[in-house]
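Most newcomers find our protein records easier to grasp once they have seen one. There is nothing in a record beyond a sequence line and a structure line. Getting from the letters to the tokens is the skill we practise here. An example says more than a description, so a record of this kind follows:
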Amino acid sequence: MMKSNPIVWCEIYVQDIDRARSFYESVFQMKLEKLESPGMDMWVFPMTMDKAGVSGALVKMEGFKSGGSGTIPYFYCDEIATELERVVAAGGKIQQPKMSIGQYGFMALIVDTEENMIGLHTPPKDMK
């Protein structure tokens, strides 16, 4: 029996950590916290250990490139339109505007300042 969701952490690799941190803090209206980790510059998203979902960090590390869309982390939003309004002003791009995903709510895709594709997700009202 699985005790938690199968994914427990994600890292978003960046080339310019200050620019990336500014983008994520602006779009999601949150503060990231520096995590001391040898050989990398890491800024962690807020997390609560006893809540559902996963957290992660922005990471700048020699030899690891940003960009591409092989894996797409999705960020929870109360209302996607709110975060979408901040994306372009923060230096990002809207790849897929808000769209319905039926019984699962709504989603959108954006590209951050480091060319990483990330998703935005709002669950249906009865799941919030």
Notes: The helical segments are 17-28, 80-87.
